Amino acid sequence: MTNLIAGSASKHSHGHGETFTLPIRNLHSGLTPEERLERLMMFLEAQFGADNVSPIAEPKTSSLPSLPSKKDAKNDHGSENSDNDDASMDVSEDEDEEERRVKERQQAELARLHKMGIPVPGIAIRVDKMAATVWLEDLEVECSSKVFADRVRAVVERAVEVTAPLS
């Protein structure tokens, strides 16, 4: 047996003069927002399944401040249109104006989130017939099932702890 050990000790494949250098960048610190989101998504996909987790592109509109419409401004001044054709045109214009204003508010909200380092407003998680939405700014979980919401909240909190950058 000593011949086997002695023989194998003299025939190893690496040299002793080599030095090992560590990577320059610590892969766990200084993460970009996109890298943090990617790690969070991987963690959630591992828990709920890759097909059940997806980013949400549009911010929640309930938190966006509403701006007064032209119709509200007209009503405040007491001038109302009694002509039916003008009223239907006003409704159509008001709907177009409201849609444009919602889009503007969404764009402003996305810009604010991006400035904070949040690449997407939220994450949708679906398992069977249950669905939850996690808003990344405050990690708020919206779900009709309290049990599923609690589970998602616990997993998200662990995921954020685990994927948080090490300084």
List keywords for this structure.
167 residues, single chain, four-stranded antiparallel sheet, extended
The structure class reads: alpha+beta
Tell me the fraction of residues in β-strands, as a range: 5-15%
**Radius of gyration from the alpha-carbon trace, in angstroms:** 28 Å
Straight-line distance between termini: 50 Å
What oligomeric arrangement do these chains adopt? single chain
How much helical structure, as a percent, in the residues?
A: 40-55%
Low-pLDDT sequence parts? 69-82
SSE ordering: HHEHHEEEH
Mean pLDDT: 76
Discrete helix count: 5
Global outline? extended
Largest sheet: 4 strands, antiparallel
Q: What's the arrangement of strands in the largest beta sheet?
A: 1-2-3-4
Q: Tally of extended strands?
A: 4
Topology:
Layout: H1 2-10, H2 33-48, E1 53-56, H3 70-77, H4 84-116, E2 122-127, E3 130-135, E4 140-143, H5 146-163
Antiparallel strand pairs: 1-2, 2-3, 3-4
